[in-house]
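User: I'm new to structure prediction. If I give you an amino acid sequence, what do you actually give back? Let's try with this one:
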Amino acid sequence: MNTQRLALTETQLSRYRERGYVFPLAAFEESEIAEFLPQYNRMQGLLPGHADVSRVNWWHKRNNYIYGLATNPGILDYVESILGPNIILWGSHFFVKDPRDNSVVPWHQDAQYWPLTPMNATTIYIAFTDCDSENSCMKVIPGSHRGKTIRPHRRADKEEYDLKDEIPESEFDPSEAVGIELKAGEVSLHDDALIHGSGPNHSDRLRVGLTFRYSSTDVKCDLSIWPTYRAYLVRGVDEYRNNPPGVIPTEFGAPDKIFPE
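Assistant: Good question. You get back a string of structure tokens that encode the predicted 3D arrangement of the chain. For your 261 residues, that looks like this:
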């Protein structure tokens, strides 16, 4: 484990605030990176039937390996640069594109899906494999987070979509899109209001990314909408106690529900 403090530089923090994202960042040792795919394959083996790993949420609730990645000191150093010293973890999700995979993550803003107030969340994306334009890395619209405004989303029930809401391209300029290209083991951060998405993987290479969602402790979830929401205090103190706390997993398990838990 990397024990050196990994806070964002002033330049990186300024870039995040201006553009809504920053990459690439290092957080893991080579020995840790070498474990990513074997552990991912183990997790896939825990899923029932032909469950799509991209449609399974909240691994950190059930899997001690995933919880360990989410609480890696280097990862939390980066998050602290943005959110401050008091941090809760509440989300985790694999975004996977198999070789020749036609699945699409449509243009969206993360905060559209989350009944959280105020909007103050950041996402860490960990590349389990190389993620580049060839195998359909995540693309972002720089600066689209500014103003913290949720753009109009429309329902789009397309079989190939991993998410069912999308922002029409009339709402922004898709020609401005930037690919978040990462080597295996590198990470990126992006704001909860940033417009982003990814297309189909036309390559013969697997693309695996793992996301973690963090907020400052003042953020409150509307439990009438999301009753299974749990907040894991991963750094600092929770002086607000706005949300029910989660139980730290002790086993290498898998979520028992497909989306909505």
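You can read the tokens as a compact description of the fold. Here is one thing that stands out. The longest strand covers residues 87-97.
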